[in-house]
Amino acid sequence: xxxxxVYKSGAQTIPGKLECEFYDFGGEDVAFHDSDTINSGxxxxxPADGSYLNEFRINEAxxxxxxxxxxxxxxxxxxxxxxxxxxxxxxxxxAPGEWTKYTVKVEETGTYELGxxxxxxxxxxxxxxxxxxxxTGPLQVTATYVAADTIPWRQWHHWNYADKLARIxxxxxxxxxxxxxxxLGQMNYxxxxxxxxx
Length: 198
Description:
Blueprint: E1 12-14, E2 16-19, E3 32-33, E4 42-43, E5 46-47, H1 52-55, E6 64-66, E7 89-91, E8 99-106, E9 110-120, E10 124-130, E11 133-134, E12 139-141, E13 160-170, E14 173-183, E15 187-196
Parallel strand pairs: 1-8, 4-5
Antiparallel strand pairs: 2-15, 3-8, 6-7, 8-14, 9-13, 9-15, 10-11, 10-12, 10-14
């Protein structure tokens, strides 16, 4: 599980939001799989300047950036379907076959409904595993492409929330959740919300 000088809570708690940047420690093929060894966000797109936002998990291959509210607009544009939070970390530059794993503390056995805060340049798909067992199969993530936005790079910054994306059963106690990028990629993952429904 992840912790640092700012995030000290350890295993994320379900029901609630699973923040995608807080994947477990352990490195390649243990806590994540990434298609290259470079963090395209921390230290690259976001220059290494000593700040927490720009250098978050800088030496790990999972690509991490954060939402930027600027003028001209980046993540705060009129083309959002749902407004994100400012300075919110997310996992980006996703490609098929990549995954991140999370140790979570499930507080109550039951069925959980999943919602995803995301952007998707194309109609990609993801899947969710519990304790390394696929529980959802491929889940379509609808594109957030907006033809009216004439700034090409901003097609990766139109935020949306996919409600009722899937339902899975979870047992009380410590479990692992893995998010797999299945098809196309080109998605950013902010968080997955786990709502107990029965």
